[in-house]
Amino acid sequence: MIGALVMILAVIWVYQSAVKAQTPNVVMWVGIVGAVFLASQVLLIDANVYLLEAFRGGEGDNNYERDLSSVGDRKNEGGFQSAGGVLLSLFLELMPPLAGFLIVAFIRIKFITKDAFSIPALFSGLTHMFASTAKDALDTMKSSVVKPSKDSAPSDSEKSE
Fold it and tell me: What is the DSSP string of 112-159?
């Protein structure tokens, strides 16, 4: 769920950056970025499952379920209830979307905007994306609220009907 939200934001960010940089084939780059993000998610979540299996390798008994395929299914089993286990679970849940976002940021700066590599350039455009989205949402809300004007006020004959 977190990864899907981050992927949507990353794709919107790349789209806005590509349009602003006047990159040809904007839709192609958006598709490439979405596919790369999804592939990184799948690979990193599988790596997390294997990592958790390594931590819990000696705990296989008759109740062991090998079919648990997500970190969320496994993190509440075994010795993951301590403070270290909570931090490890938190890291393993947030690492795939954050790593995918960094991969998308690298592709964006290297191939779409073609800026020099730097940390500020890597994340440039994020504040503009959120600010423009909030401004557009407010403008939409303002335009959907229609105040009756004096010209469109119902006449006395219309009020009585």
Answer: IS-PPP-HHHHTTTHHHHHHHHHHHHHHHHHHHSPPPPSTTSPPHHHH
Helix/strand/coil for 21:
coil
Question: Per residue in 121-158, pLDDT tens?
Answer: 888 888 777 787 777 778 888 887 766 666 655 555 55
pLDDT tens digits, 40-87:
999 998 888 888 777 766 555 555 555 555 555 555 555 556 667 778
One-letter-per-residue 3-state SS of 42-101: HHHHHHHHHHHHHHCHHHCCCCCCCCCCCHHHHHCCCCCCCHHHHHHHHHHHHHHHHHHH
Tokens 């009585």, residue located: 160
For residue 4, give the nearest of 29, 30, 41 by alpha carbon: 41
Q: What is the pTM of this model?
A: 0.68
> DSSP readout, 133-144?
HHHHHHHHHHHH
